[in-house]
Amino acid sequence: MTAPPNRTAAPSTVTAATASAVPTAPAGPAAASAPVGLAARLGTPRLAPFVFLAPLALFTLVFFLLPLGFSVYLSFTRWNPLGEPRWVGLKQFEYLLFRDEQFWATLSNTFVFAFGLVLIGMPLALALSFVFSRAKARAVWRAVYYLPQVTNIVAIAYIWQFVLDDRYGLINRALGAVGIAGPDWLTDPTWAMVSVILVMIWYELGKNMIVFSAALENVEGILYEAATLDGATVFEQFRHITIPSIRPAITFVAITSFITGMGWFALILAMTGGGPRGTTEVTALYLYQMAFQDLRMGRASAAALLLFVIIGLITLVQVRVLNRRGESM
């Protein structure tokens, strides 16, 4: 009889073939040259985050913290860039607070500009965002109203100068066509500040609407559906559902709009230069002229520090008031 075939040799053959197919780590010099992670090269994983943060920290130190510290130091000195700083203590602050009438006049203009930007611009942006959130082609509308934010501010100023020109401006020509004499938008002290506020609102409108649009999309639609079934009008839905739901966005826009209004001067510099008769000269423009035209760096630094403190204090008040109103709703 023929002996049965040996079936015990098959598993060992398969095992050997499998083992030969599995790649093995290179030994010797090849293993030493294998790529290793950044954390291993640095010696510890805890050091890697600091290496990645180092460029940003260096940038912040060189372009923010050092200039800020130097500006604080200059506020206690009298310095013309052609000479050496001379320590005068608090004299620059004393002059600005008690003897410089122009500083207080520009600060008053700054508050008018900033609060106009908040009290008119924020409700307008919120209302338009609420309307466009229910419209078709929302992405197209967002691109349209955000367009001014990606346009050069000087170009915008020159365009609006042409639009608001007393004799040849488009607005006065349109008013004249229906028998209405348009005002001197940029040369009349009564209308100049109104004009720059409206232009600034138009410029900031897209940015604020983006924030409000994002907040509105997070409001649950079931709330509006339930309110509609209960017979609530659109205004009642806006008041009792929309506003409480987007309270953080309202706080953010109110604070950022106020800070922008308190520190912005590029548009005013290009449109009116602070005129007519100083009615549009804000504090930021005043200290810019003081520093780079009159070369009084110490006094300009003191004015900038005072403006910084004022903005900080009013921002804290805004945060507390808005948070209390939000808790009471």
CATH fold group of the largest domain: MetI-like fold
Return the domain count.
Answer: 2
Poorly predicted tracts of residues: 1-23, 28-35
Question: Mean pLDDT score, rounded?
Answer: 84
Number of strands: 2
How much of the sequence lies in strands comes to under 5%
Helix proportion:
over 70%
Q: Which outline best applies?
A: globular
**CATH architecture name of the largest domain:** Orthogonal Bundle
CATH superfamily of the largest domain: MetI-like
Biggest sheet: strands, sense, closure? 2 strands, antiparallel
Structural class by sheet pairing and helices = mainly alpha
The helix-strand sequence is HHHHEEHHHHHHHHHHHH
What does the radius of gyration come to? 32 Å
- Order of strands across the widest beta sheet? 1-2
Number of helices: 16
What distance lies between the first and last C-alpha atoms, to the nearest angstrom? 99 Å
**CATH C-level of the largest domain:** Mainly Alpha
